[in-house]
Amino acid sequence: MTFYDDIYPFYPLQRTSFIFSGSLLTIILVFLVLAVSLLVILPGIRGKSRLFWMFRIVISLFIGAVIVALNFTNDWAEARMITNATYKSFSNAVVNAEVGLHVGLLHFFSLSGNPVVQFNETIDYNEMFSWHDTIEEEYEEALEKGLPNPILYIAEKFTLSSPCGLIFRYSFSGRYASATLWTAFCCWVLANILFSMPVILYAGYMTVATAAFIFFSMASFSTIMNVPQCVFSIGTDSFETEYSHSFWLALATGVLCTIIGVLVVLFNFLIPEKMKEAFSSGVDSYEDEDVSYGEGYLNSVFLDGVTISPLTSKVTTVSSLN
């Protein structure tokens, strides 16, 4: 490979290993800027309400960021192993490498050498196959690039010609899971709007709805685990996918939304006045209502000598003059 100056023949530029998803980085930066912007107003809030508002902002933005990020993560399910496998087609060269399959609402494959540098070459690949109707075109591009055999073997399992039928399982389950996650995000936005209005009860209901749609997305993705799993065999080893970080993070977020929603609904029935005070709702609700100031009394000392003539006396006087 020195003839190409470390540039692979089918790659226009040197391939670099995957470090961090650009989409996830964008989401994190957006929510961090939003969090800083909202936390700047905290010094203007007096008393104990300041801590409550800070807790409310942090928890709310955490839930929103997780819901959006789960659409772009690549570790809803994953599997990896270290094995000896043939490296390139039409070659007997065998490398010791870590082969990984990372499944999200997209697909992500990785192959890392163990050690990374073998045969005077850096074996550190990260290839992503996006969910479209099929991945036939991306698989053909991978063949043209001359990707290592383990990656081509795994990618072939997701083509239409594969007897495993993984493309149908993962594409449909991922599509419905993504749709329900975006619905959960809409419920989260509505819940935050309702928390700023004197309708705390409905805000609690929308928080519970957010949790429900997160659970629906998990149920949609879980359908791939309810069918016989396709075994990936590379060399003398094999592996199957299992639930990973994003799946359990979705579960934790759904449970958190459920607890918050149930507590808001429960406290709204038990201590409604304190809930309105905590969320600063209903403060100006008395402006358009008849305000009762309680019972009053007249001081007889100031009323001594004050005579109040009835209105009828004026009418009588006018009539007598006529």
Automatic annotation (TrEMBL):
GO biological process: protein transport
Alphabetical UniProt keywords: Glycoprotein, Membrane, Transmembrane, Transmembrane helix
Superkingdom to which the source organism belongs: Eukaryota
UniProt KW Signal keyword: no
Subcellular location as annotated: Membrane
Membrane topology: Multi-pass membrane protein
Cellular component GO terms held in the UniProt record: endoplasmic reticulum membrane
UniProt family annotation: Belongs to the DUOXA family.
Protein name: Dual oxidase maturation factor 2
Source organism per UniProt: Seriola lalandi dorsalis
